[in-house]
Amino acid sequence: MKAQEAGSGGLAQGPSSGAWNEPGDDVMLIDTAMQDDARYQALLARDASQDGRWFYSVRTTGVYCRPSCASRPPRRENVAFHASTAEAEAAGFRPCKRCRPTEISAEAHRVAAIRRACDLIAAAEEVPKLEALADAAHMSPYHFHRTFRRVVGTTPAAFARAARLERLTRGLEGAASVTEAIYAAGYGSGARAYADAKAKLGAAPAALMAGGQGLALRYAAARTKLGWLLVAATDRGVASVSFGDALPALLAGIEGRFPKARITRDEGVLGSWLGAIVAAVEAGSAFPDLPLDIAGTAFQAEVWAALRRIPAGQTRSYAEVAAATGKPTAVRAVAGACAANEIALLIPCHRVVRADGASGGYRWGEERKRKLLAAERAAAS
Ligand SMILES: [Zn+2]
Fold first, then answer.
1. pLDDT at 147 over 60
2. pTM for the whole thing?
3. C-alpha dihedral sign at 40, 44, 45, 46
4. Would you call 118 a catalytic residue per the annotation?
5. 65, 69, 99, 118: the active-site residue
6. Ligand 1 center to residue 99 CA distance, Å?
7. Rounded to the nearest 10 degrees, what angle do helices 187-196 and 101-123 cross at?
8. Which of 17, 52, 180, 263 is the most buried (most CB within 10 A)?
9. What is the dihedral of CA 312, 317, 321, 322, to 10 degrees?
10. How many Å apart are CA 153 and CA 142, to the nearest integer?
11. Residue 192: pLDDT over 80
């Protein structure tokens, strides 16, 4: 099946382009605009992106929940909606023990504060000082920095650089760009995605093996200084990250790899993941720790895990990686596992070079490898 919109002149013009908030807009305006029927649909879908934005109570049980609660969906006529936990409790409901809506509320609060900080950064000509941003978010600079990293997947400074870059390129490309992708994401779900993100290295699901039969594959893409970057994911995690000079060729690549998958564009969570990866590329900083969904042999999985332990700004020789997997003579097999890597950047095979310092090749182009390493070295020094 063809990827949607592949030929429409670029991903970049998504339905959400232009729909996101101008800096200063109150986030809650959007939330309250969501009609109750839509909210009911969201709770049936257990839509985590709505968590913290509103709550629902169930007349028959006397409890209130967040939208993504895993308990059995209540009947429409028993459900009421509340803007806050306080409102639900004032109406006589108690918090659900399963989804703990009061805890989510605190997290949603932090996420909203980070979103406002992103607005401040995006709107400012000069990059605001960390202390000022933290102050506006009612957090200590340390707590603010940590929370920002967790929610957005990159540091405030890297986000500011990306925002500046976006301002430079916006209009030229008409493109979904770093901050736009992050904005479009709905921070509620993005935050949890990051908090829950654990590297998953293991066997592929059966669906992947069968060319993606019955598999839903989502993708997001953006132009970077190193060319187009495309991220594709299953509901288990990132299945592919690739660079290319042209988007249609990248899409053809994932269609070729997953010929039976249903491939759709996703500017939501995947857009935020893409934004975090692009920001790290631009900054030469560490890549976000995202869940991966990859297929490989046990040895390949070991090599890929070893690659993920190489810090940004450093390189290893193929022999060093072989030694790190406990098989010092398996140098050629390590090179093979690097060449078989489908997930650029997040499995940083670009950080493996030949012992004599020569690049040693890169699936997505030697020049990209050199530039990636140069940016990471510069950022680390
Ligand atoms: Zn619940």
1. yes
2. 0.48
3. positive
4. no
5. 65
6. 4
7. 110
8. 52
9. 170
10. 16
11. no
